[in-house]
């Protein structure tokens, strides 16, 4: 009882102390919450996203046999990695990448990609897989891949322009000494519109040369069963056509070269103009 007059004041003093400490720490707690939110936002912003060049060519669709590649350099000491987007599709989760600093040849990159993509061994007579830049030029050295903004790994070993999405446009350099514009009209099958590939005058000249050759009924490749039945080609092909060899006109020869420049396939692989 003699201590009662001391206990209450002491408790009140302790309460006042706690209240004082609370008021002193409340701004600090607020700052800590702000710092936690900022750290969370920073962590979210640090999540890897495709670069601008890769993002432009990534699709919501999936294209078998085609992988988009994005080299990432970390410093001037030569350290770099290679992001790869299977099917050239925009990733829904984490971006997959390969450590590339230990590669010494372009073949090292190709072997690493074949392993990462789990590709089976090449079959007999199958074209070797190949890497290309965004203009369809075959890469020959590792340094070309490292310095490319983006590249493509094609399982068939032959260049195919990426369709990306309907309405997508891309410039093709070196077609008839100029640039051609490809516009995607369809993804499956892949259909492109090529603007200004032929001038109106050239179009008229090609038709005139074809008419001089004489148009004949088109013929298809009938199956054995149809051949036995004597099915007429006209049941399948109703068009008329003419084959135009390069020797007929300098324009036809030039057109053959122009097609090769557009497709990035050697002119020796072309058939005659039809």
Fold blueprint:
Blueprint (H helix, E strand, L loop, with lengths): L3 H42 L6 H6 L8 E8 L6 E7 L10 E3 L6 H11 L13 E4 L8 H6 L3 E4 L14 E7 L2 E9 L4 E5 L4 H14 L2 E2 L6 H6 L10 E2 L8 H14 L11
Contiguous uncertain segments of 5+ residues: 37-46
Q: Helical amount among residues, as a percent range?
A: 25-40%
Mean pLDDT reading: 85
Q: With helices defined by DSSP (H or I, 4 residues minimum), what is the helix count? A: 7
Briefly summarize what is shown.
The chain has helices at residues 4-45, 52-57, 106-116, 142-147, 200-213, 224-229, 250-263; strands spanning 66-73, 80-86, 97-99, 130-133, 151-154, 169-175, 178-186, 191-195, 216-217, 240-241.
Descriptive report:
The chain is α+β, with helices and mostly antiparallel strands and 274 residues long. Helix content is 36%, strand content 19%. It starts with a helix and ends in an 11-residue tail after the last helix. It has seven helices and ten strands. A five-stranded antiparallel β-sheet has the order 3-2-1-5-4. Strand 6 (169-175) and strand 7 form a beta hairpin. It has helices at residues 4-45, 52-57, 106-116, 142-147, 200-213, 224-229, 250-263, and strands spanning 66-73, 80-86, 97-99, 130-133, 151-154, 169-175, 178-186, 191-195, 216-217, 240-241.
